[in-house]
Specification:
The chain is an alpha/beta fold. It has five helices and 15 strands. It has a single domain, classed as Metallo-beta-lactamase, Chain A, CATH 3.60.15.10. The strands form three sheets. A seven-stranded mixed beta sheet has the order 1-2-3-4-5-6-7, covered by helices on one side. The chain starts with 13 loop residues before the first strand and ends with a helix.
């Protein structure tokens, strides 16, 4: 079946099958958070992005193979409600942006900086530090050698705009700058975007609207 990226809380996961990586997306919790399970096809090692909520559902998706690591994209509570239980059940190493780790009530094993490489099996993900939604938000970029890039943006980029900066013009300026220079300026239109809530998009679908985002200030 063709991957759509459209998932609902209580509904089935959707699976994006790439040559080297399998990406499973599921929605959990009262804020309709997206959680992503990445599986290296060569080694079967798995990595979870945002243990947001409903640990039972997430552990069922992870299955008996477990996960080697879990990445929390940022410190907001709706993105780590199930983190403690998932880590306790799997023994996974925890990763988070250096400037957000103190706001996550589960110890962070690996403090992530801009440009750091996070591996799942033989697959490499590049972390991009994006400031504005929180001080230490990170996005993860998978530059698929067999196709276009894929980027997991947490709450920093959605269909229709960047993440919430709480009407703070300085925070918005920082976030739009980082999203433009570290995402839009270096990745092609075909790049698939997996956000922390809601449907997926592509950079090509969003790029024409960047001037509108600047003008409205959010």
């Amino acid at each position: 079946m063709t991957y759509s990226g459209q998932v609902t809380v209580g509904g089935p996961a959707d699976v994006h099958e790439l040559k080297d990586l399998m990406i499973t997306k599921i929605a959990v919790g009262p804020m309709d958070n997206n959680t992503y399970l990445l599986r290296c096809r060569a080694t079967d090692e798995q990595l979870l992005i945002d243990a947001a909520n409903d640990a039972g559902t997430l552990l069922g998706m992870i299955g008996d193979d477990g996960i080697a690591s879990v990445v929390t994209t940022h410190q907001h509570g709706d993105h780590w409600q199930a983190l403690a239980e998932v880590v306790a059940a799997t023994g996974a190493r925890t990763h988070a942006g250096r400037d957000d780790a103190e706001g996550i009530p589960v110890p962070t094993d690996v403090l992530v900086d801009d440009g750091d490489i996070i591996r799942v099996g033989r697959v490499e993900l590049t972390a991009r530090h994006l400031v504005g939604h929180t001080p230490g938000s990170i996005a993860l970029v998978y530059d698929d050698p067999h196709g276009h890039p894929h980027v997991f943006t947490g709450d920093c980029l959605f269909p229709g705009g960047v993440g919430n900066t709480r009407k703070d013009p300085e925070a918005f300026a920082r976030l739009i700058h980082d999203v433009e220079t570290k995402i839009f300026d270096v990745l092609p239109d075909e790049t698939w975007v997996y956000p922390g809530h809601g449907n997926d998009t592509t950079l090509g679908a969003e790029r024409p609207h960047l001037p509108e985002w600047h003008a409205r200030g959010w």
